[in-house]
């Protein structure tokens, strides 16, 4: 009866949902930059944007975006049954399914991602703060956590990559020094 | 604008959703019994039922039931937007938000609960197998994982309680022996 | 060969380890107070202390404390094998087993606990900051995360309890009003 | 004081620990094969081995192996303090830090990995059963869970990859058909 959905459609739909709800890759990359620049003073926006794109390629995250934004929109339109409608529409403090759904994809990037997620969830930095503004009449109960999750994942991914690069550089230097030493020896 | 929902309403709604979708406390307690009876040969159904009731008192689990069953029902009625509608209606193999939502509440009962959940999810025991039967025309993509989660939590909770009771019994015996020894000493 | 360890011994050992490493229940309760007082202006230290005690009763948390502090002490004495010795002694940034162990017990108290843990891990409030001070020559790689976990759990536990109390109060008031109305009616 | 450890050393040490404790990549790949072959009848051992190698490249998993095997060895030698020594040496049923440490790296591969891990933990398939044999006088309290975790991760990773390949194949066929149709049209 039901057809298998192609990954291409899932990815496309997830990115469209983010855009429709007012979240750009640039917005999320700015949070990543704020998180990582204290540890890497020469950081530019470019690798942050690349890291957000890489995280958004993950099926688990695309699925979480589709589910979370669907629930936000249904709540905005008043189409959920009670008491779930009131709980999501009011972003009720003890409701945790939004964080649970978002955390599920956070684990994918290790413990740095989990702690960064917790931090972003409390501090509400950048676009996350804008989404949290209830005055707008819009419901972003799930979306703000999903954005925090993507930003946390992209931060963690970048921290690991930057270490890899740093080590590769050190290896190259050691290699060069070694070659130099060998040359000296032979010359000496 | 939106009112705060009373816990009483949340609990009532969660239990009603389970009943409406054909799941009773007895069904879940039977899974708990199957999981724990190999370790405790004299186990009866009564503490299994009590343990399921205790788990269903948790806000996190009530919220997860409300969210999961809502999505199942909306998918059953064809009311979700694509491609989410097809993904949930077909219980797509790589879709993991159902397990994520259920696992979120599983953590509450420690690592025994997590491994029991994984086991139940694969083996589909008792009511979980019935829910998994796609022939029914109903959608239980989230519900089967929620039931596995409640059963896993109740199993873990009971394993901890049974240990506590066992220790209390040993303590009582040791105490009695001690009293006896003291009496002997005084008498001797 | 090996005897079953009584829960009483496990609990006693876990509390002793905390004390030996310079962490008191009061220290942890102060973090809980800082986390929850913005939401509950009339909060006193007493329920915070009670909540920390309740969390420390959990087997999963006692086990995590025993494992984490053991590894800290072994690293402090230089008794681990390399490269683990260097990784733990230096509290290496990309090492995540300390957070993983601590997070395991955080899940027990729901998503509020997870986000609070992430926040504390980044902000290093109160005793957590003192433990993080590497100048001391001591190794607290695991302990600071364990303390953050206990504090996060106690905060989450208290948030749920305070809601329950608030609702009970509202119920009592509604009940009293109802009685009053009935009396009026009968009187009228 | 403490030097930064190079990733190369961490990876090398983690693989050596597995080998020293009697676990080969082949052993783990055999579990992956058993898990995935029901869904993919033409599966060979080769991609299973490749998937295990890929998972073992992850820092989080290497760290978890170093920590877990260290604790197993220390318990085997009787070098831990009590009551932790007895708890780990007896693989005490309610001790969950072994699963917690292993689960931490399981999240990296999504919900399929978590449920597969739970299943392997209960069923004790292949090398996991051998490790669980307490008659050997060796302690593998952490190692059996770490192996289950690597196998679960490699299974989940492969499930996602196989879907990607299947879709790429379908796309290629559709593309070929399209070219054929266009040629027909132009020819017609």
UniProtKB/TrEMBL annotation, chains A, B, C, D:
Transmembrane segments: none annotated. Residues 28-160 form the YutG/PgpA domain. One of its GO terms (molecular function) is phosphatidylglycerophosphatase activity. It holds the Pfam family PgpA. Residues 161-188 are annotated as: Disordered. InterPro entries: PgpA-like_sf, Put_PGPase, YutG/PgpA. One of its GO terms (biological process) is lipid metabolic process. This is Phosphatidylglycerophosphatase A.
